[in-house]
From TrEMBL:
Coiled coil: none annotated. This is Secreted protein. Residues 28-47, 206-240 are annotated as: Disordered. Residues 1-26 form the signal peptide. The chain crosses the membrane at residues 249-269. It comes from Streptomyces lonegramiae.
Length: 283
């Protein structure tokens, strides 16, 4: 009876841990912060790394530009996450185009290192009759640290660049509309690792020119408005690190409880009845 009570307590402990732990489905779902998929996202894009428009994870950004322009956005990604960027380009009317166009979507980390896409259509060619083109790029899992010589994705800002890389010369300057969404998913405790690195989140500021005869007072007043001209990728909801909690804790405790249960059950089976009776005393 004591063995059965111990087994019941172990099973109750395992059930409570599994009920309070995050499920695997939640770990695999894309992160969606406040305003995810909201139509109130940014309606413009930067023209360089320093003027990139900051967006949040899961937020949809739109922009109108001319063929030949470079469009830049920036979003945050924390350790243990796998970023995925999707873009849709609405092309001009077919009557205004003169041939096929090739569009490309690139992703750079906070050090402006171009990151390879593990899946997705990074470069897509649209026919003259196509109304739109869809591009996507999934980056490798973000690591909390890396060797100096490695090109591993690190936590911090990630830049998205969208542009046309091949088109007829007559089509330069044609207006188009782009929609970009950057999302992430957590890989869970199966890929958790130690280490910590300061996030690579350089400040973004649109370049501003000043008259040669500007006074020092004007410089000081500009410094007060620096916060309005400076932007950076917002910190993710869970912070830049992967955190101390992961599903490894759940399976470690469950494995320990099952091991203890197996030990108790094995002892109860091997003990039996009368297997350890004392031998009769010698006459």
């Amino acid at each position: 009876m004591r063995a059965l009570r111990t087994a019941g307590a172990a099973f109750a402990l395992c059930a409570a841990l599994l009920a309070t732990a995050p499920t695997a489905a939640a770990d695999a779902s894309p992160s969606a912060s406040a305003g995810a998929g909201d139509s109130d996202g940014p309606t413009e894009a930067g023209t360089g790394f320093r003027t990139a428009t900051a967006i949040e994870q899961g937020q949809t950004a739109t922009a109108s530009a001319s063929a030949g322009d470079y469009l830049y956005w920036v979003f945050p990604a924390a350790a243990g996450q796998v970023p995925t960027v999707k873009a849709t380009v609405k092309l001009p009317e077919a009557q205004a185009r003169h041939g096929r166009t090739t569009w490309q979507l690139d992703v750079y980390d906070g050090l402006r290192r171009r990151q390879a896409c593990t899946s997705g259509s990074q470069t897509v060619t649209a026919g003259q009759d196509d109304a739109s083109v869809d591009l996507s790029c999934r980056v490798r899992r973000v690591r909390p640290w890396s060797e100096a010589w490695a090109n591993e994705p690190l936590p911090g800002s990630y830049y998205v660049r969208l542009t046309v890389v091949n088109l007829p010369e007559q089509d330069l300057g044609l207006a188009f509309t782009a929609t970009v969404t950057a999302s992430t998913r957590d890989t869970g405790g199966a890929h958790a690792e130690g280490g910590e690195l300061e996030p690579l989140t350089p400040a973004l500021r649109a370049g501003a020119t000043q008259a040669p005869d500007a006074s020092e007072s004007a410089d000081s007043s500009d410094g007060d408005d620096e916060s309005s001209n400076t932007a950076s990728a917002a910190e993710p909801d869970g912070g830049w690190g992967s955190g101390w909690w992961s599903d490894r804790w759940v399976w470690t405790v469950v494995g320990g409880a099952l091991g203890a249960l197996a030990g108790v059950g094995g002892y109860a089976l091997s003990r039996g009845r009368g297997s350890f009776r004392r031998p009769p005393a010698a006459e």
